UniProtKB/TrEMBL annotation:
GO terms for molecular function: efflux transmembrane transporter activity. Belongs to the membrane fusion protein (MFP) (TC 8.A.1) family. It comes from the Bacteria. Signal peptide: none annotated. This is RND family efflux transporter MFP subunit. Residues 204-273 form the CusB-like beta-barrel domain. InterPro entries: Beta-barrel_RND_2, BSH_CzcB-like, RND_pump_MFP. NCBIfam families: RND_mfp. Residues 57-185 form the CzcB-like barrel-sandwich hybrid domain. GO terms for cellular component: efflux pump complex.
Amino acid sequence: MIAVIALSIFVMSCGSDNKKAVADNTSPIAVKVNAVQADGNNPFVTASGKVQAENSADLSTRMMGFVNKVHVNVGDEVRKGQLLVSINNADLQAKRAQVNAGITEATAAFNNAQKDYNRFKNLFADNSASQKEMDDMTAHFEMAKARLEAANQMKNEVNSQFAYSNITAPFSGVVTSKNIEAGDMANPGMPLISVEVPGKFEVIAMVPESEISQIKKGIEVDVVVKSINKAIKGKVAEVSTSAKNTGGQFLVKVLLDETGATILSGMFTTVQFPVAKKATASTMVLIPTEAIVTRGQLTGVYTTSQSNTAVLRWLRLGRTYGDNVEVLSGLSANESYIVSAEGKLFNGAKISIQ
């Protein structure tokens, strides 16, 4: 029994020595490190914004009626003038028939009045009609003329209402939303179809009053689209001069440059204006996004220990600034972190700083 225990201890000791030897013989992984730089004077004035199409429209109607048919679906490409929604217009057709009958009647009355007017004008010239008779005939003619003009204008009004029963595309683009189906009741002002021109986007951002005086039309900015983690160049197109209805936030419109990135209306962004902040900013720690390590819902960065091993440290991150990200906690100024490695890093791996 004693001999078995001794043999077991000997085997375990040999295994431990072998693991230690393997660990000692493992070649260190060559890495590159950077020292954390704390930026106490952040050059960016930032503002949150949202992407929207530069040219978009929410189409509605001015009349109430049942929808006969919706001719398009979300995602369909449409041409300018293409029929999108048909609304029942039986009442308009009946009204148009009445108006046409009224025009026929008014035209007959006008023609008859015009003949009488011309006849009395000749009689008056020959002193065969009195001034009173001529005045009465002139008034009768003018009233017939006015009734015919009113009937024609009513026809124009009915024809304009037909435009609201057939909703057409105001420009060529893509259908982005459909809020009604055949059989539904369309109400005045109710959005029915939304259309936008793809490819050209803008961002609407809200800038606080403490910084708006430095934002000028025409300056170039970086727009970070959070969902795809990409920065896109843009240019300030409009700067609001009033925050009366926006709670102290001033509206700034930024036109985005054309890009191959997949961006869609409604995506949230961070707009970075390259102007100095008026107020003193708190010390900010920035590290490149390429150095970030992701493990599920956690994010961190590899740092170096005094014994030249890699240490994975978890971080709490803030806003993204171009290719850098703000570190809110987990990494302090003047500490070192690993930017790149020639081999796969893991917690406790031996490293060789290049």
